[in-house]
Amino acid sequence: QVQLVVSGGGLVQPGGSLRLSCTASGLPLSRWPVNWYRQVRGKGRELLASVGYPADSTIYADSVKGRFFVSRDNDKNAVYLLMNILKSEDTAVYFCNVRVFATKWDDYWGQGTQVTVSS
Asked: Coil, strand or helix: which one is 39?
């Protein structure tokens, strides 16, 4: 059974940093692209960043480019989202996502972690 766990959220002041972690059981994250999304209450999920496979190429939404960075730690079966220069508009619930193909595409989601940027 595949399970993704997201951790690292919390309250941070504007300009601060946080690092979110997405760890997996039942699935080697190193073999799949991994995505980070966020969702503000009442709005849809926004794709923020992705790390590809096998080349580990990264792409970012314009809203976070230059401030957020995604990386892998294959030894820990984890993917991280380092968030710098946080702004109040970054306040949201953050999720990791992996789309896996076996006989069909399946989407797996972490449970989400709240990030609140406020003074």
From this structure: strand
Burial class (CB in 10 A: 0-12, 13-18, 19+), 100: middle
Distance, in Å, from the CA atom of 95 to the CA atom of 84, rounded to the nearest integer, reads 17
Residue 113 structure tokens = 């972690």
Q: Which residues lie across from 77 on neighbouring strands?
A: none
Residue corresponding to tokens 């940027």:
117
Tokens read off for 98:
């992996």
Residues 81 and 67: their CA atoms lie apart, in Å, by: 10
CA angle 42, 32, 77 (to 5 degrees): 90
How do the pLDDT tens digits run along the chain, 119 residues long?
899 999 999 999 999 999 999 999 999 999 999 999 999 999 999 999 999 988 889 999 999 999 999 999 999 999 999 999 999 999 999 999 999 988 998 999 999 999 999 99
Q: In sequence order, which residues have a C-beta less than 8 Å from that of residue 86 and are 6 or more positions away? A: 12, 13, 14, 15, 16, 17, 18, 67, 115, 117
